[in-house]
Amino acid sequence: MPHSLPSAATDAARRPIGIFDSGIGGLTVARAVARALPHERLVYFGDTAHLPYGDKSQAAIQAYAVKICDLLLRQHCKLILIACHSASAAAYELVREYVGSKAQVVNVIDPIVQLVGAEYAGRPVGLIGTKQTVNSNVYKKKIDELDRGVDLHSLATPLLASMVEEGFYDNSISADIIASYLDNPALSGIEALLLACTHYPLIQPQIEAYYQGRAPGRVAVLDPSNVVAATVRDYLHTHELAAPAANGAAPAHHFYVSDFTRSFEESTRLFFGQAVQLEHYPLWE
Ligand code: DGL
């Protein structure tokens, strides 16, 4: 039987998904994408040389993001997912314009905003994230644009990301820090809490335990990573860009960081659920 040549659509579908973050925290989002789309090859870039983005200016994050996109486009990514909430808040519009038609750009904010608009119309919802994410007001603007009457209460919780990176995510110290943030009157009366930072899925059980202890069943804790993974899956399927199964072989992901340390590599298990090998890609030398 004659073999047909691969179609242009199939070639495009074989291109990888690019994912970037300020560091390795975005591996929580990469993990959700890998679970939702097990045949997709991922090219991950963690800008560990500039970590944390949560304290950086919008201009700095935009400059980093553009350079990272150059790398992901050189790797022929069909879709670029901005896994970092701080970068999604600071640089999404610019990145989308910069990338143009070369790849689809998805941020981690819009999908969860849609979900909140659909499920929490007319209700009070809390949000915790870095200073950059909260001060940018991007979540509030996008939620207000939906005009669904969601009343968003945001609180910057800058200690939480470094706390998780230091390994404090399931002990009494992390429980105390989480409680002291969540006790803040800014979050009183909320019916859902949006985890607007890559690191927070790791402390989701402790956050849920906090609310279970105070108002059982009243506050839902929302992790945007699964929601954005579902958005990516829907986009690829709708546009016939989903990678074909590779005869049972696992896709060969690549995980790059702009500054390599052993401790980053050791933490990959924490965020990705399994240890991965980090490759040093010095974008800024
Ligand atoms: N990845 C960042 C975010 O989701 C958290 C870490 C940082 O501040 O760089 O906002």
Task: Walk me through this protein's architecture.
- Strands 4-3-1-2-9-10 form a six-stranded parallel beta sheet, sandwiched between helices. It has a four-stranded parallel beta sheet with strand order 6-5-7-8, with helices on both faces.
- Strand 9, helix 12 (262-272) and strand 10 (279-280) form a beta-alpha-beta unit.
- It is built from twelve helices and ten strands.
- The protein has two domains: 7-107 and 226-280, 3-Layer(aba) Sandwich (Rossmann fold), CATH 3.40.50.1860; 110-225, Rossmann fold (3-Layer(aba) Sandwich).
- It is globular and about 50 Å long.
- It is of the alpha/beta class.
- The protein has helices at residues 8-13, 27-36, 58-74, 85-99, 110-119, 131-136, 138-146, 159-165, 172-182, 204-214, 224-238, 262-272; strands at 17-21, 42-46, 79-82, 104-107, 124-129, 151-156, 192-196, 220-222, 254-257, 279-280.
- Residues 21-23, 25-26, 51-54, 84-86, 130, 133, 161, 197-199 line the site of D-glutamic acid.
